[in-house]
Amino acid sequence: MIKQKLIFSLKWEKIDIKDENYSPRTGHTVVENNGDFYLFGGADSDTRTNDLFIFSLEKRKWFKLNPRGIQLPTSRSGAQSLSHQASIYIFGGYTRKGGEYFNDIYEYKTIEDEWIDLQAINSPQPRTDHTFNKYLDDFFVYGGRDEMHIFSDIHQYKIFENKWECISNQLYVPSQEDQSQLLEQGLVVSEPKLRFGHSSVIFHNFMYIFGGWDGNVTLSDLTIFDLELKLWLQPYQIKGQIKGRYRHTAISTDTSMFVFGGIDQQQERFNDIQEYVYQTQSWTRVITVGTAPSSRTFHQSIAFQGNFYVFGGFDGMKRNDMYRIYLGGNSPDQNRDQTEALQQFDKNFTLKGQDKQKLEKVQIFTDDYYNSMVVGEWIKLRASGLLFTPRTGHECLIYKKKIYLFGGTDQDDRKNDLYSYDLYTNQWDKLLQQGEIPMPRSGARGVAYKDCLYFFGGYQKKSGEYYNDLFYYDLNRKRWDRNVQVGEYPSERTDHSAVLYEGQLYIFGGYDGKTRFSDLYKCNLRTASFKWKKINGDGTLPLNRFGHTAVIYEHSMFIFGGWNGHDTLDDIYQYSFSSNYWYEIKKVKGTRPKPRYRHTAVVCGGSMIVFGGVDTDQQRFNDVFTYEIDKRRWSVIQTTGNQPQARTFHKSVIYNNIMFVIGGFDGSRLNDLHHIALPQSLYEEDYDQMRRISRPASSASGIMQTPMYQTEEDNKMKDIKYLQKQVLLLRRQVGELSSLLKAEQENVDDCKICFSRDIDTLFLECSHRVMCSKCASNQTIKKCPICRVEIQRIVKTFNV
To answer: Where on the tree of life does the source sit, at the highest rank (predicted)?
Structure first.
């Protein structure tokens, strides 16, 4: 028995927009993709538009985009849009009454900042005021109108085939037994009326359609379409009432559909929120407080991180305002009620005998949550979704607010599965894998670049079957491909390091079961050839090793620790990409970590953060050390909270200043997840710069497009760009050498014994300054290390 739901007042918040805003309008479309909001088209006070804006929640600013494309969408109002992977899709719309109606489908690639006319086949009739939803990897259009007709058809767009299919004539005909079973659940088989200006949301495999206008009256009915069974249903005993309306908006949560605004046939506009609870089949008006939006219609809404957002619309005037209300704040009793309701709902809908996943209420995260985390406090996360098995030797990459986990070794075998963890929904998902899937392996290493995850090497068995293949997984196509090895490529290995610098993958070190390496290779990911090259750097090369870490800071790679076959290491080497030179950093300040390998390292601000690992005596660690790169200083980060067990063979990634630790080995294999806020000193970049860095222009596959012909002007531009690149390289080298010189000068006053404290003593009678007072207090030191003259007395000195 489901308890009656407690009603709490929810608070509206008006979001103050900084700087320029989009023009007031109606009939626009808004979607969320990767934490950003995208607004397209609509009708402002002057005309229909096809402009595109992006909104940063962090900055509370709209930015107008200027996307590329051979053919941009025509200016329009009444289009509908949805978000899928790293792209935004729009369908339909119209120019004006008596004007042109559209049935085209466009894709906007958010990474490439480019529009593509997909030119799909078998398109539905042109229309506006329809709905456009996504279920799995397919899109569905329902209803709408053109100048002469109102529709109730439903069309399915198959993205991988770029083809539309009308499924209105493919409906399932239920048996008498099916109809009796449906009746017991309060449902009858009933096709919907013609309509436009309605809303639709997806919940599980059902599309819920509410309201609209049938040409005579505004509607208040609710119709359900089973997307798997292709069956129209209607609840016949809905509790509660809601006024008929059209051109409203609706969003879905784990338990309910929420409807906001709209207008009825008497031209009364609304600003209420009505909740339809799926399990109880009941309508309830949501009580709200705060600064509510004005009564309006022809606006847009999205759901994001528990909030219901409202954008623009018409309240007697066209608007460009923005509001939100948080719908995710429930009491513990409500959470239990919702879980029970979901379980009951899943139990009821069993027409095809399918077991539906039980949804568990877990915490979701927001930018406010991450920004308010206490520095140094460990938190163990309880995530929802399909969790990976406990394992070691997996690889984790972070890309666009998701962590991707590949391979490793669980209690049964080596793995080649692929999972994703959403940093905001706090949910694990197992990803679909197609194409040339890598062999199961442990110890692979990888990088994320332009919507692709690249993985190199690893091993299947200690006695053999080590790999030197390079695979990449295209996040857009959900497909694996294997790169053909071209050029000087690395030999088979595992426990190497992999970093990304300026579009190139760098592989250092590793182990093949017999030999430990200290070689360095790079593979150009920016071109279609993926050509490898061995790098023969100058300077002091690191010892052969595996199980080390490598991080990028500015224009250098820093190697720390590892195992050389005899001992675990605690040394640091710097490789300069600008000068192709290796430096061993011998003189460092502070408390150096114990030697270790199979630890992890990330960069936060100007520091390298090291966590965990194991030493020669098999002592595992769970300490956190920070190495300030410019100051060459180690220190321990004092932590609190639910600290991870001491472990090795785990993975760590960083998002802003939040470090995530995933799985590993503490005596048993683990599949836990912790995060911790780290101290940071790096200043915040301009938002435009951040977008340019994180979203370079490229194709979806990560391969740069080469022009088919080049003019003399092109060649001149190439020469100019080459010279500019050389000047930039020289500047980097000068800056790097200046930094190294400065670091050496700063080390002049370091104690020549411990290299961690300043010199604060003077030896007499030779007058040499050599040691700190702690080292000078060693009774075994009788002579000055510089001149070998016997020490008569030691005087403590002080800096002024």
So the answer is: Eukaryota
10-348 matches 367-687 in fold: yes
| Cβ atoms 144, 127 nearer than 8 A | yes
Which pair of tokens denotes residue 702?
């990560």
Question: Strand 427-430 vs strand 384-385: parallel, antiparallel, or unpaired?
Answer: parallel
CA distance 267 to 295: 11
Q: Which two tokens stand for residue 595?
A: 């030697």
CATH topology of domain 749-800: Herpes Virus-1 (3.30.40)
In tens, the pLDDT along 215-244 reads: 999 999 999 999 988 999 999 889 999 999
Residues near 499 by Cβ (< 8 Å), separated by ≥ 6? 447, 505, 506, 550, 551, 552, 557
Q: For residue 729, give the H/E element and its range.
A: helix 712-746
Quick one: how far is CA 239 from the chain centroid? 40
Break the chain into its structural domains and give their ranges: 10-348, 367-687, 710-742, 749-800
**pLDDT by residue (tens digit) across 325-384?**
998 643 333 333 444 444 444 444 444 433 333 333 457 888 889 988 999 999 999 898
Q: Across the chain, what does the average pLDDT equal? A: 85
Does residue 797 contact residue 772 with C-beta atoms inside 8 Å?
no
Integer Cα distance of 522 and 532 in angstroms = 6
DSSP assigned state of 782: -
CATH of the domain spanning 10-348: 2.120.10.80
**Residue 237 neighbours by CB distance under 10 Å:** 9
Give the DSSP letter of residue 791: P
Q: Please tell me the pTM assigned to this model.
A: 0.50
- What CATH architecture is 367-687? 6 Propeller (2.120)
Print burial letters for 525-539: b (CB count within 10 Å at least 16), e (below 16).
bbeeebebeeeeeee
In contact, 334 and 6? CB cutoff 8 Å: yes
Torsion of CA 37, 39, 45, 49, to 10 degrees: 160
